[in-house]
Amino acid sequence: MPMILLVEDDPDHEALAIRALRKANVANDIHVARDGAEAIAFMQEIVDGKRNAPQLVLLDLKLPKVEGLEVLRNIRASDKTALMPVVVLTSSDEERDIVSSYRLGVNSYIRKPVNFTDFAEATRQLGMYWLLLNQCPPTI
Amino acid sequence: MRTSGWYRVAMFGAMIVVLLNTLFAVKTLHTLFLVQGWRAHTLEVITHTRAIDLEISQGNSAVRAYLLTGYPSYVERFHQAKGTIDSELVQLQKLTIDNPAQQNRILYLKKRILIKRAALETAVAMRSGMAGPLDMTALQPSLSDSPDGLPSVYYCIDRIEEEEQRLLNDRTREVHHAEVLVWVSFFSASLLDIFLLAAAAELLIRVLRDRQTLADRAAEIALLNTDLEKRVELRTRELESSNKELEAFSYSVSHDLRAPLRTIDGFSLALQEDFADKLSGEGQDYINRVRAGVQRMGSLIDALLQLSRVTRTELQHEDIDLSQMATLVFQELKGAEPARSVTFTAQPGLHANGDSRLLRNVLENLIGNALKFTSKVSDPQIEFGGRPGTGELAGKTVYFVQDNGAGFDMQYVDRLFTAFQRLHGDRDFKGSGIGLATVSRIIRRHHGSMGAFSEPGKGANFYFTLADGPIAG
């Protein structure tokens, strides 16, 4: 089954995101990278052929070690990962973050609402759209 | 007229004055030469007259000597005198051709001379016919002078000379006069030249001094400018760094402060959902209160961020139809409360120059407030309009949003536009207390002013002005 990569440094948010995805009946494997460097290492493994590419990357922007935008740049830079669907999930609604993300080729930008009911709903739609409805590019 | 124009006029005037003066000097010099010529002419006439006088007496003496001695050399002298007199008379006539009175006198003199000469020639002839001793009695008639003889000749000569003397006097006077004029003209010309030269020199000195002063001042200004530029640069750097700090702060606020809130809310919800069976109604209520507090905190953070964004964003100026914008904003806000019935009127055609996003924010806040504070009246009415300013705001358009809602006590009007200051409790009307602070900051950034008046229960009027033209910064 295709897997989801969740890049999130806050363990609370990680737990809540996984809970929300499960509640939304997303049964896929969820791999968690806890900082930017870990995410980039994960991508390297895909490039090296040690791993299959995830069907969706949920990326936080504010990460320890390497920033989310840098991870995104890294994903888009390599042929093997360039077409991977990446959704930015962040607390920031700063214009520059939104603009930079789209410039780097993000597929979607979602601001995490404070209200968790809204977030759960957003997650449900996210899972539905990216994992069921959206036609992913063929794996290279 | 510019100074250089005046200088040109003065220069031209001076040139004309110098030219006139020169012309005057030349004219007086010319007159002097002329009258001197005339004077010389008169002197020549007098010389010739005197020569005639001399020759007449010489001729007369020669005749007398001949009569006494009988020597023929005296007759020769007499004939010589006759020739000289005739040629002198011709000269005299030529010289006085312009003076008819003198010409008459000369003609008369000529006649007198001829009569005298005839008498003398008769005497000479008689004497040469006499042989032997001298018979004086026979000669007496031709020698004794009748009144029309020699005295009348001398009289004529005297008249002619007298006339010429008079002319000489006149002409000497004229020469003197002309000389004085020449002196005056040359003296005045020199004086004028010296004066003009001095004026030009003074002007030159002044121009040079002014230039020096200007150069000094320019140097001073350049120095001040350099200083100013340095200071501006320093301030700009300070401002930039403080802006950067502010931005970093806002970024942290937007991310870091919200993250724990999400955790609190997320786990509260998880608690509510996953342990519903273990929670009493009271427990559920507590969790709801926790989540409501989180919501409130979240919206406060958002409002704060908006406030800081108003300060940070760069203004984009354009012409805005405020009337249309107000209507759109109202429709949008009203859309969130479809059950309410609110009368909204906007005066059409109100335009302003400003940043459309920020001014939209102003209208959203003011119309949003109006909607909020009319929620408890039976016939809510909101009006957007403009009126010409009076007093301090004279010459500007005052835009206003008027409602018939709860209003406020004018005693607290100053607290309205400060962040986190609220005149109504959350129990009555929800709010962050940041909206009007944001509006006030936006209006300030548009170099405008704002204010409000109200009475409790009688609605409120919030008004603002904007700078007329494009705004720097």
Notes on the structure:
Chain A is α/β, with parallel strands linked by helices and 140 residues long. Chain A is 44% helix and 16% strand. Chain A has a five-stranded parallel β-sheet, sandwiched between helices. The two termini of chain A are 17 Å apart. The model of chain A has no long low-confidence stretch (mean pLDDT 86). Chain B has two domains: 3-205, Four Helix Bundle (Hemerythrin (Met), subunit A); 318-464, Histidine kinase-like ATPase, C-terminal domain (Heat Shock Protein 90). In chain B, a hairpin with an 8-residue loop joins β4 and β5. In chain B, 70% of the residues lie in helices and 8% in strands. Chain B has 473 residues and is of the alpha+beta class. Chains A and B meet through α1 and α5 of A and α5 and α6 of B.
Assembly category? heterodimer
SS field, number of helical segments of chain A: 5
Quick one: biggest sheet of chain B? 5 strands, mixed
Low-pLDDT windows of residues of chain B:
none
- CA distance, first residue to last residue of chain B: 39 Å
CATH architectural grouping of chain A: 3-Layer(aba) Sandwich
Measured as a percent range, the helix fraction of chain A is: 40-55%
Strand order of the largest sheet of chain B: 2-4-5-7-6
Fraction of helical residues of chain B: 55-70%
User: For the largest beta sheet of chain A, what order do the strands appear in spatially?
Assistant: 2-1-3-4-5
What summary fits the major beta sheet of chain A? 5 strands, parallel
What is the CATH topology descriptor of the largest domain in chain B? Four Helix Bundle (Hemerythrin (Met), subunit A)
